Amino acid sequence: MAQAVAPRVTRQTVGAIADGAFKVLLAAVYIAGAAPLGRLLGTSAWLMVVSGVALLIGGGIEIRYTRSRSMRTYTQFMIAYDSGWVLTALTGFLMARQGSSAGGEIWMGYQTAAPIVFAALLVAAAPMHMTSGTQRDTSD
User: Fold this and answer.
1) Each residue of 63-78: pLDDT tens digit?
2) In which band, very low, low, confident or very high, does the pLDDT at 139 lie, cut at 50, 70 and 90?
3) What 3-state DSSP class applies to 38?
4) Contacts with 2 (C-beta within 8 Å, 6 or more apart), sequence order
5) Residues paired with residue 3 on neighbouring β-strands, in sequence order
6) Which of 27, 40, 78, 137 lies in disulfide reach of 55, CB 3.0 to 4.6 Å?
7) Could you report the per-residue pLDDT of 1-24, keeping only the tens digit for each?
């Protein structure tokens, strides 16, 4: 009788799903609070909405591809994404501290472009190779 063996869910898998879920939640906050958040950050409401939509798409794709892409690929992409997020947030903060009004726009611009790039790279990445522990057992 053939039995399907489900792939093991690791902490890394849960982390990748949580990262995607955080993006989806952040997207909802950006869309729902576009006007007040835009005023707070010095950006237009439309940029907040567009960023929210980009995060929604990126987070959804991230969750969807969790089982079909290797965690090594996910980890590399998440490190690159989060490193860029930190550097952009720091740049925006320093610009705002110096009196520039462009800091919020730079930060939101990153949060608009980066999730789409992340999602595109994830979709283009090679599918995970099945190992004997994750393949269907066809022996009788």
Assistant:
1) 999 888 888 888 899 9
2) very low
3) helix
4) 136, 137, 138, 140
5) 137
6) 27
7) 555 555 667 888 898 899 999 999
Mean of the per-residue pLDDT values of the chain: 87
Distance CA 10, CA 43 (A): 39
Place of tokens 């930060």: 107
Contacts of 29 (CB under 8 A, 6+ apart): 37, 52
Residue 34's Cβ-side half-sphere holds a number of Cα atoms within 13 Å equal to 14
Helix (H, G, I), strand (E, B) or coil at 76: helix
Alpha helix ranges (H) inside 1-140: 11-32, 34-41, 45-64, 71-97, 103-124
